TrEMBL record:
InterPro entries: AAA+_ATPase (IPR003593), ABC_transporter-like_ATP-bd (IPR003439), ABC_transporter-like_CS (IPR017871), ABC_transpr_MalK-like (IPR015855), ABC_transpr_MalK/UgpC-like (IPR047641), Mo/tungstate-bd_C_term_dom (IPR008995), NA-bd_OB-fold (IPR012340), P-loop_NTPase (IPR027417)
SMART domains to which the protein is assigned, alphabetical: AAA
Molecular function, one GO term: ATP binding
Keywords, comma-separated and alphabetical: ATP-binding, Cell membrane, Membrane, Nucleotide-binding, Translocase, Transport
Name the UniProt record assigns to this protein: ABC transporter ATP-binding protein
Top-level division of the source organism's lineage: Bacteria
Presence of keyword Calcium: no
Organism whose genome encodes this protein: Kibdelosporangium philippinense
Gene3D superfamilies per record: 2.40.50.100, Nucleic acid-binding proteins, P-loop containing nucleotide triphosphate hydrolases
SUPFAM superfamilies reported for this sequence: MOP-like, P-loop containing nucleoside triphosphate hydrolases
Pfam families the record matches: ABC_tran, TOBE_2
Residues covered by the ABC transporter domain: 4-234
Amino acid sequence: MAEVRIEGLRKDFGKATAVDELTLTVRDREFLTLVGPSGCGKSTTLRMICGLERATSGQIYFDDQAVGHLPANKRDIAMVFQSYALYPHRTVEQNIGFALKMMRVPRKTIDGKVHAAAKALGILDLLDRKPRELSGGQRQRVALGRAIVRDAGAYLLDEPLSNLDAQLRVHMRAEIKRLHAEVARTFIYVTHDQVEAMTMSDRIAVLSDGRLQQCGTPEEIYERPANRFVAAFMGSPPMNFLSGARRFGVSVPDDAEVGIRPEHVRISPTFVDGYVPGRVFVAELLGADVLVTVDVGDELIKARVPAPFDAGVDSTVYVGIDPAKIHMFAAADGRALPRGA
Ligand SMILES: Nc1ncnc2c1ncn2[C@@H]1O[C@H](COP(=O)(O)OP(=O)(O)OP(=O)(O)O)[C@@H](O)[C@H]1O
């Protein structure tokens, strides 16, 4: 059991504030991802949760027990880092069981746990190998195995996939999600990759400049971003922000900015009422879809449309947006405005 509750957490490094009054509850057995651009305070938050960094102020609770004063080894937590730092001269089996050996856990118990972890991770046949005899993805699994044998209440993962190539990352993403379902423990995951956050998490906490911008399910974050920052950061390809939305027949208050996701932009080779003419700037094949960038005179608009897309570069097309799908943000502070306001 581990609910992790963070209240008014703050970390200053000299005059700079890395984490600013963060309040957040990670539910028992939840997969929560902290996501945000480089330097937004994700790792510092994780390091405070696990006890590697002391908070300037605020408190962290594990199931109602304040843990802020406890050293890392007294917190019921296991951590997986970006650099998996395996012991090069030990076998996979010894690497996974090392922490338990240090804790003087009986040999038989260690064997049982190491085998259960290796089975869950699909590396049973690699137990006798040394790290240099493994691929990057296999090493990453060993690092995960080292954490899961610890049997902690909460697992903290700091960008564990960032050293892997794109294909392996996609594969390991699914494996970690599966592992979470299997071990049924609290996972707190840190990444700057919004696709990882969207695909793996029960809930996502989006940070910018040390401040929590929004916390919600992937659907909530994607469909109802709380502000312009979240709308722009989450989603690939990113949301369009239109300066001339009125041309598309959208009624917009003076002090608002309109956003529309590429999948809600329509393109027609012939004129359609309410559509705006433009020139194809570039078309990029994504697989089943094509990402088409259209120059409508004073701005570029990206549309994600089903393949094939036949119009060539510089040809004239007509661009329309679905008014029911627009997002509106206050020009002054970027906060989301109700649709149709
Ligand atoms: N030990 C430190 N001393 C001084 N400043 C620090 C220290 N650790 C982090 N910072 C600063 O605090 C801010 C947040 O850093 P943090 O590592 O938490 O960001 P992050 O979101 O994890 O970024 P990244 O994705 O690049 O790892 C950054 O501006 C960073 O430079």
